[in-house]
Design brief:
Layout (H helix, E strand, L loop, with lengths): L1 H10 L2 H17 L7 H16 L14 H8 L1 H25 L1 H5 L3 H17 L19 H14 L1 H10 L7 H24 L1 H6 L5 H5 L1 H26 L4 H20 L6 H24 L1
Helix pairs in contact: 2-3, 2-8, 2-15, 3-5, 7-8, 8-10, 10-13, 10-15, 13-14, 14-15
Length: 301
Amino acid sequence: MVARLIRFIFFGNYFIGLLAIALTIESTLQLKLQFNALPYYILIFCASVVYYTHAYMGATRFSSSSNPRVAWYIKHQHYLRWSQWVLSAVAIISFLYLFIGNLVAILALSWLYWAAVAFILLVAFLYYGLLPAYFFNLNLRNTGWLKPFIIGFIWACTANVLPPMLLKIEHGIPFPFSEFWLWLFVKNWMFCTVNAIMFDIKDYEIDANRELKTFVVQFGIHKTIFFILMPLLAIGMLSLFVFTSYEHIPVKQVLINLVPFILTLVVAFSLNLKKPILYYLIVIDGLILLKALCGITGAII
């Protein structure tokens, strides 16, 4: 029963929806902003689950079932179609509630806000090649080394760009653009990018057969860990020390926010040995939740 529940939460990508909410709350507290309306959290939860589940909705009984996740999707395809429709409907209703209720403020936004939203949506759609081929035939998910940076960018926008924009719409609160906001944005971007590169280790054999030039395919698992992941994490920790020193942030907050980087180093090193898929979904994705929880703790103590 417990094993089935774990597969349901993690294979079904419901944990991803929780991560979206956690990162949003983290950035809200770190930037000392007020919380968004409840429909917004419902929207990002549903949209995140639907978005990440989309990649597996094409799985059929003719797909390779040696992958436990694919096998789970094949077995539960009828439920997942129902879940996608329900979550999509809830997301649309939440969006319309926010859009209609704030229509005047939305129309009054400057072109910079419209351009930012359009760019984020464009990247999100191109990641799965969701735009019609005659309009823009590009699937960023198949761009190899660029893929993890796209994933990290979308996560950073979800956490650090969209929530303040909604506060601007709902309450007229100015967008908190500053050196601190920029640093938080880049930190989220790079941390989630590292997380995505670690996930590519899981798909090493598949990507190699597809000739998809991810970092892992080009350099191998060992070199990816030691010459890409560890340097990126070291740079992240160094930037944490430099920026927090510049901003005179208390040491206890710095140490709390350092924990996810240290544990990510440990987990990255552990990937030298082959791990089951649930290890990636629970432990590696769990690092993002840990980062959010540490950020929240550091912001309220």
